[in-house]
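Lab manual, section 2.4: Encoding a predicted structure.

Procedure: take the sequence of the chain (619 residues), apply the prediction step described in section 2.3, and record the output as C-alpha cells. A sample record is shown.
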Amino acid sequence: MLESSSRHEQGSPSLKEVAHDMAPAGLDLYYPDGDAARFWQKVRTSDLYEADRREIQAEGQRLLGLQLPVLTYSLYADFARTGRRLGYERVYFERRRRLNTFAILTMLEPERDEYREALCDTLWLILEEYTWCLPAHLGEGDAGGEIDLFSAETGFALSELLYLAGDGLSPLIRSRIRDEVHRRLFESYLAREFHWESAVHNWSAVCAGSIGAAALLLMEDADRLAAVLAKAERSMHCYLTGFGEDGACQEGLGYWNYGFGYFTYYADLLRKRSRGRLDWFASDKVRRIALFQQKCFLGGSAVANFSDSRPSGSIQPGLSDYLAGLYPEFQRPPARLRAAFTEDHCSRWAPAIRNLLWRSGEPAQSEWGPFFGYLPDAQWLIWRHAGPSCAFGFAAKGGHNAEPHNHNDLGQFMLYGDGEFFLADLGSGEYTKSYFGPERYTYDCNGSQGHSVPIVGGQYQAEGEDSRAVVEEAYADEAGAVFGVDLTQAYRYAGLESLRRALRWEMQGGLPSLALTDEYRFAGAPSSVVERFVTRVRPRLAGDRIELQGSGEQGLKLIMRYDGGMLSPEITRRMFMDHDGCEAEWYTIDLTVRKPEPSIRVAVTFEFEPNDEESGDRE
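Recorded output:
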C-alpha cells in the first residue's frame, strides 16, 4: 500500500473494485483458525491469561451486585449548566464497563446464564440511549445525526459483538444492533461531513476508524461500503499527516494508545477483508509511529508526559504484541506495565477484547532498554538509562504553543530517578467545558505557570503557533544529553530581545546531574525575571541550596544549587484538579532575580545524591 491508500498506483484496484471483492466477514477475522471455542478454552486454562481472568471475573461479580446504571436528564443537562463532565460520563462509562465485562464472560463461561442476561440487559440500555455521544461533544441543539468519539466506538463495539457473541444474543437484539448502527453511524456519515474527518489528531483515527471497521463487519452493499471506506481512508491519511517523520505523538502515550490503537484496529480488518491489497502497515511512516511507545518512557511506568498526558503510563498488551509481530524492531514492553482490565475509565471495548485476542505469549523484556534520542519534528529530547541500582530519565521539549492538546510549555523539562519525578509535568487536568475553552491557559496544568519555564516581566508564555521554540542544539548518547533552545518567541514581553536556555545532562559516577543556563537580553532593565521549577516532591530550603528528598527504594535526593546573592528563593505549595477530578498537590520553586538588568545569565545545577540520613530523619 502507498503512504495513503486513497492514492493508487497505475493499475492498482480502486476502492470500489476492492469492496466488490472482499473476503467474507467471519470469525477468521478474529480467530486465525476460525475456531472460537478453542481460543476461549485457552483463555480459560492458560497461565498467560490468569491475571485477565481474575480481573474480569471479579468485575463481573461486582457488577452483578449493582443496579443497572441510569442516565437521567439531570446528568445529561449538567454539562450545559456547570461545564462539568464527570457525573454523566461515570454512568455512561459504567454501562460500557458492563458491556465489556459481561460480553467477555459470556464467551469465557457460556454456561453462566446470569452473564448472558446481564449482557442483554446492558445492550438494551445502550440501544435505547438518546444519543451515544457525550454531552461535551454536542452543540446546544438536537443530538440527532451527530457522531463523536464514543458514538463511533459504541457502534464498532456492537458490530463486533454480533460476530463474537454469536448465539449469545437474541435475534431481536441482533436485529436492533444492525438497525441502530446503520441509523446512528452509517446514514449520518454518508449524508454529511464532520469536523473530525480532516483532523490531524486522534479524533480522525478513532471516529473514522470505528465507522470504517463497523462497515467492514456489517455493510453488505459493496457500493455503500466503498463510499464509507473512501471517507475513512481520507481521514486516516489526515491522521497520519499529524505526525512528523520521527513518528512522535505530540499528544503523548495515552493518545498514542487511543488514536494509533484505533488506526490499527481498522487497518487490521481492512487488510484482512481486502485480501492484503489495502495495507496501511506497509507504510514506513506507520512503522515509525508504532515505535513511539518504546521511545517515550523514561523508566518503569514513567513517561515523558508533555501536553494532556499522564505522568505514569501502561501498555495495551494486545496492541503491543500485534505491532511486535509486524515490526522486528518493535520492543515488547515489560509485562508488568500491562493495563489492567479495569484501568480504562472509558471502558473501551476494542482494546479490551484485543488484549485477549492478540496476546502472543512471546517473552518480553523485564525492563525498558536504554534510549538516547532526539525526535526532531516534535522537538523532544528523551534520555533513558537503567543503572546498576535504579533508572534515570531526562526529557526536554521545544515545539510551539498550538500543538494537539497543547500546553504552553516551550523549554519544559523533567527529571526522573529512583521511581519518581523530581522535576515534573503536571500532565492532564480534569476535562471540563472551560478546560477546552478560552480559559484553558488559566489552568495551571496547561499554562506555562505550571511548567519549569521562566516568567518574564510577570508574563507567562503566549499561546498560538507563532509562540515557537527554535532548537539550536540537541544531542543525546549514553554519557548524557545537550539541549539548547531559543525561547524568545514564546514571550510577548516588550523589550525582550532574546532568551536562550541551555540544558546539559551528564552521567558521572553512576549518578546524573543537570546544568541549566538561561541567558536574557533586554532593551532595558526588565520589571522582573523569575525562574520557575515544578515538582510533586516537597522541597525544602537548606542554606544556599534546595533539597528534594525522594521516597524511592534508593532514597535519592535531588540538590538544587544557585547563586543566592543573585536569586531569591520561594517555595509554594499548590493544588490542582487532576484528570480524575481529584485534588492533587504540587509545588513551585521560584528563583527571582534580585536586581534585573538588561543582560542576565542564570545558572542552576541539579545533582542527584545518595541519601545519607536515617529514614526517620527524612523531611
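Check your result against the sample. The first helix runs from residue 15 to 19.
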